[in-house]
Amino acid sequence: MGPMPSPASFWLESKTPVAPPTSANPTVRRLVYAGVVTGAWAAVLSLVLYLIGRIAGTDFSLVWWGGADPQPMPWFVFVLLPLVSAVLFALAAFLARGLAHARALVYWVGSLLALASLYPAIDQPPSVGWGTRILLILMHVITWYLVVPQIARILGDSEPGQHEERNA
Fold first, then answer.
1. Cα atoms found within 13 Å of the Cα of residue 87, Cβ hemisphere only
2. Is 127 exposed, middle or buried (0-12, 13-18, 19+ CB in 10 A)?
3. Helix residue spans in 7-160 (DSSP H)
4. CA–CA separation, 95 vs 44, rounded Å?
5. pLDDT tens, residue by residue, 61-75
6. How far apart are CA 129 and CA 119, in angstroms?
7. Alpha-carbon distance 58 to 77, whole Å?
8. 0.70 exceeded by the pTM?
9. Which 3 state secondary structure label does DSSP give 92?
């Protein structure tokens, strides 16, 4: 007759559709929480870079839109921007919940947004020092690295077929 199939293999070959657990689909609350946590870490690291830059003599002055002269950025901007950006990104990423390839979609859209956010830091007049530009670019990269892959991973749990592949 042959060997008896193990209970695990029986369920792998079952045609009975099993809905994924509801805990696998990220809620708004879970995504906002992830945005707050990753954004807070990005804010802390940005503040550390800001303090290192200030000790090294970087003035963190930028020409704002419509301005002509560089204006100094207050220290709290380096805390608020990563935190607010991460939470807004998490809320926007919620729109991809349940879509096929949600993880890749959120990852690449988030990466393109992070790349686009570098433009104001790079496109500064010569009166803005390169130390300021480099530290701002580094802060953007840190925020991208901490926020985008984590939110994309969480959203990947809601992709159709994701749970069947894990059980196989």
1. 12
2. exposed
3. 7-12, 28-55, 77-93, 102-117, 119-122, 130-156
4. 28
5. 888 777 778 888 889
6. 15
7. 16
8. yes
9. helix
Of 28, 145, 17, nearest to 96 by C-alpha is 28
Cα 76 to Cα 43, 52, 106, 141, distances in angstroms? 9, 15, 28, 19
Hunting for tokens 């929480």 — which residue is that? 33
Token pair of 59 as six digits: 């003035």
Least confident of 24-28, 89-93, 108-112: 24-28
Band (pLDDT 50/70/90 cuts) for residue 3 is low
Q: What percent of the chain has pLDDT over 70?
A: 80
The average pLDDT across 95-124 equals: 90
